[in-house]
């Protein structure tokens, strides 16, 4: 299975720029997607196909990468962005998720 | 807008079967693909499988001998059955719509239902 590795946690101040990384154990082309999950809620789609912003998602969110290295950027971070962020690939079977990065605001 | 809602028992005994229903409104399950994902305590997420607009299925090989996904198009529902459960199947279970065009990702999720496996 394709293993997706994310940093477990980050802490930033509102107004700062934050990058969340996701590294794949093998190439996933650009079939990498990002989800936000707030406590007690379901995940919601932020970015699909590495860099495409889902409709309704603020332009503060952006994604980049291809192959094995991907990044989700939030600029500027707002208090409402406190959540866990997951990457997920759909290039290789079975589809897999990263372990999640918990973003906390200072 | 499409909405999904999971339902089913919150407690299942070890060795028994786990059965969940996903009720979909605002969109026909005879379009797109529809999947099940679970999130374990500790935040690990696992894609379990999906059923297509035509009724074909695909499963995560880690579950292939225990899982079945079916549907009832007249009720616009699809179902998850997981057999021979153990405490390791304790998780929050989500159903989701899969965008298929031809790239695959989960674009709408249900709120999830927590299932505990315990005697």
Q: What share of the residues of chain A lie within helices? A: under 10%
> How many helices of chain B?
0
Radius of gyration of chain A: 13 Å
Total strand segments of chain B: 11
Classify the beta-strand content of chain B into a percent band: over 45%
Described by strand count, sense and barrel closure, the largest sheet of chain B is: 7 strands, mixed
The gyration radius over C-alpha positions of chain B equals 13 Å
Order of helices and strands of chain B: EEEEEEEEEEE
Gap between N and C termini of chain B: 39 Å
Q: What is the mean predicted local confidence, pLDDT of chain A?
A: 97
Helices and strands, with pairings:
The complex is a heterodimer of chains A (106) and B (119).
Chain A: E1 4-6, E2 9-12, E3 18-24, E4 32-37, E5 44-48, E6 52-53, E7 61-66, E8 69-74, E9 83-89, E10 96-97, E11 101-105
Parallel strand pairs in A: 2-11
Antiparallel strand pairs in A: 1-3, 3-8, 4-5, 4-9, 5-6, 7-8, 9-10, 9-11
Chain B: E1 3-7, E2 11-12, E3 18-25, E4 33-39, E5 45-51, E6 57-59, E7 67-72, E8 77-82, E9 91-100, E10 104-109, E11 113-117
Parallel strand pairs in B: 2-11
Antiparallel strand pairs in B: 1-3, 3-8, 4-5, 4-9, 5-6, 7-8, 9-10, 9-11
């Amino acid at each position: 299975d394709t293993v997706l590795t994310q940093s477990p946690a980050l802490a930033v101040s509102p107004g700062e720029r934050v990058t969340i990384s996701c590294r794949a154990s093998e190439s996933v082309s650009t079939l990498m997607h990002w989800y936000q999950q707030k406590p007690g809620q379901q995940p919601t789609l932020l970015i699909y196909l590495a860099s495409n912003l889902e409709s309704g998602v603020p332009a503060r969110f952006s994604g980049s990468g291809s192959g094995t290295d991907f990044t989700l950027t939030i600029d500027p971070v707002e208090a409402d962005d406190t959540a866990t962020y997951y990457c997920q690939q759909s290039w290789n079977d079975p589809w897999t998720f990263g372990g999640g990065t918990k973003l906390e605001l200072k | 807008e499409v909405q999904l809602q999971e339902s089913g028992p919150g407690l299942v005994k070890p060795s028994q079967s786990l059965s969940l229903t996903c009720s979909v409104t605002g969109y026909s399950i005879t379009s797109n693909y529809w999947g099940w994902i679970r999130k374990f305590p500790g935040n690990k997420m696992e894609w379990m499988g999906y059923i297509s607009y035509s009724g074909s299925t695909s499963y995560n090989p880690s579950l292939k001998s225990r899982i079945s996904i079916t549907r009832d198009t007249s009720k616009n529902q699809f179902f998850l059955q997981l057999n021979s459960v153990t405490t390791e199947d304790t998780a929050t279970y989500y159903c989701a719509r899969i965008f298929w065009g031809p790239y695959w990702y989960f674009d709408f999720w249900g709120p999830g239902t927590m299932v505990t496996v315990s005697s």
